[in-house]
Amino acid sequence: MAYPKYASSYSLLRYPLRPDALRQYALNTAGSLLMLLAISCGAPSTDQSVADTATPETATPETATPETATPSESASKATATPVIASHDGKDDALVEVEEGNTVVTTIEVENAADMGDITYAIKDGDDKDKFVIDEKTGVLSFKDTPDWETPSDADQNNNYFVFVQAIAPNSARDGQFLVVKVTDLPD
Fold first, then answer.
1. Which residue of 29, 82, 97, 108 has the smallest Cβ count within 10 Å?
2. What is the mean pLDDT of residues 73-96?
3. Could you give the CA distance from residue 127 to residue 180 in angstroms, rounded to a whole number?
4. How far apart are CA 58 and CA 111, in angstroms?
5. Do 169 and 77 meet the contact criterion of CB atoms below 8 Å apart?
6. Which residue has the higher pLDDT, 144 or 26?
7. Nearest-CA neighbor of 74 among 26, 40, 31, 112?
8. Is 0.70 surpassed by the pTM of this model?
9. What is the mean pLDDT of the chain?
């Protein structure tokens, strides 16, 4: 695998997307502007400047493919980080569920349109084995119907601990720790 080539006079970091790529891509980090450039892979000679070979790739959002996406679109999807918005976007939250209900909550991401397909997963928590999550929709549910009179959480107090994550296609992720409190229904 070829390592990125750094062209110091133009602050470019160059790399091919795959070894047999017909184009290389570069990030121009000059100043506060970040640009994604497509560079023809007819490798420049050592005396040719990178700026002479760099040409921005253009495409409309309707015709964009991974190789023809607009620079700003490609850069934003490649660097976008999901931000969980459910439960006020807090890092941890209390969710109350009445006994007898299996659906707990839906994990929502505020910038999902910026990233493509988000995957949802259960990553940790003392009671993680008591839950399932729909990896496409983010719906978190109990595997078995909870009963307040017979708690099945790790410390037997009807407070279930689970850590969920939203994962972008670029592997960026955000997590939320949930305490799911099962409440009693009058008999």
1. 29
2. 82
3. 10
4. 24
5. yes
6. 144
7. 26
8. no
9. 73
Tell me the pLDDT band of 115, cut-offs 50, 70 and 90: confident
Compute the average pLDDT of residues 73-100. Answer: 84
pLDDT of residue 78: 60
Can you give the three-state secondary structure of the chain, one letter per residue? CCCCEEECCCCEEEEECCCCCCEEEEEECCCCCCEEEEEECCCCCCCCCHHHHEECCCCCCCCCCCCCCCHHHHHHHHHCCCCECHHHHCCEEEEEEECCCCEEEECCECCHHHCCCCEEEEEECCCHHHEEECCCCCEEEECCCCCCCCCCCCCCCCEEEEEEEEECCCCCEEEEEEEEEEECCCC
Region at 60 (left for phi over 0; alpha for psi -120 to 50; beta for the rest): beta
| Of 2, 6, 47, the residue nearest 26 (C-alpha) | 6
